[in-house]
Design goal:
The chain is of the alpha/beta class. The strands form 3 sheets. It has a 5-stranded parallel β-sheet. Strand 1 and strand 2 form a beta hairpin. Helix 1 runs parallel beside helix 3, helix 5 runs parallel beside helix 6 and helix 8 runs parallel beside helix 10. The longest helix has 21 residues. The protein is globular and about 90 Å long. About 2% of the residues have low confidence.
Length: 262
């Protein structure tokens, strides 16, 4: 079971709700994914006014745990204000905290992220910060009151997968008791499985499903990949080796001598 801030979930896949071709496709993709947590952007959907109302109604009908995020916020003040609006609207203290530093990579502003996390945690929020694989930032976020970390695999929407796998492995080893969710940059089900094989607790993705030719089938594929990766981690993966190792030992195998003279 996945446990986040005292709540337990069967699925280890979290799904974003943006960019789907239609509300019906979004609904069917969420159902196919088995995701019990969906993320929503308060800033984006609120800006849609009348269309946004239909979106909220759809999210409510899905019956999933809503994780509001502060997507698009570029300052601490913006992120904190958006988190307060989200808590009022959804009645939840959960917030996926984003403070963006760079428009090209959408890389988190680690300094602003830690500052905003400390403010929100002190105000009773349960913060899930979108961060990088940086160890120092992770330590400061935990000290600020975050009990969950969400390091990226690659820039948002890039579909590049785990571009710094070694750093992600180190982060996992350094914080064995902290729930870690790979967020951003996942492009294929194999990327998700790879993250889970490293021992990460869950994967959050959006674009790879929403922009697929068939989002519903892709959501199903990711659900299976996340499960396979987790099972592989729990089973215990063999370590890579430099040399070949025969699956059938040579000792004790029968050898037959062929007599060419006969």
């Amino acid at each position: 079971m996945l446990e986040l801030y005292g709540a337990r979930f069967s699925s280890r896949l979290l799904l974003g709700t943006a960019q789907y071709p239609s509300p019906d496709v979004l609904r069917r993709a969420v159902e196919a994914s088995g995701a019990e947590i969906v993320t929503v952007s308060l800033r984006r959907e609120s800006a849609r006014a009348r269309a946004g109302q239909g979106f909220w109604e759809l999210i409510e009908r899905l019956g999933r745990r809503v994780l509001p995020n502060t997507a698009g916020c570029r300052t601490v003040k913006e992120a904190v204000a958006t988190a307060h609006m989200a808590r009022e609207l959804f009645g939840t203290s959960w917030i996926k905290l984003e403070v963006i530093a760079n428009d090209d990579t959408l890389q988190p502003d680690l300094f602003g992220l830690v500052e905003a996390a400390a403010i929100l945690a002190a105000e009773g929020f349960e913060v899930l910060p979108y961060t990088t694989e940086d160890l120092s930032a992770a330590e400061r976020l935990i000290a600020a009151g975050c009990s969950v970390l969400m390091p990226w695999a690659a820039p948002i929407g890039s579909a590049r997968g785990l571009i710094n796998k070694t750093a992600l492995k180190i982060l996992r080893a350094h914080f064995p008791g902290v729930p870690l969710i790979v967020d951003a940059g996942i492009g294929t089900p194999s990327h998700a499985a790879e993250a889970m094989e490293l021992g990460y607790d869950a994967v959050l993705l959006n674009t790879a499903v929403a922009k697929a030719g068939d989002p519903v089938k892709m959501a199903d594929a990711f659900a299976k990949a996340v499960l396979a990766g987790r099972l592989a981690f729990e089973a215990g993966l063999m370590e890579p080796q430099d040399m070949a190792s025969p699956s059938t030992p040579i000792a004790g195998t029968p050898f037959f001598k062929i007599d060419h003279a006969s």
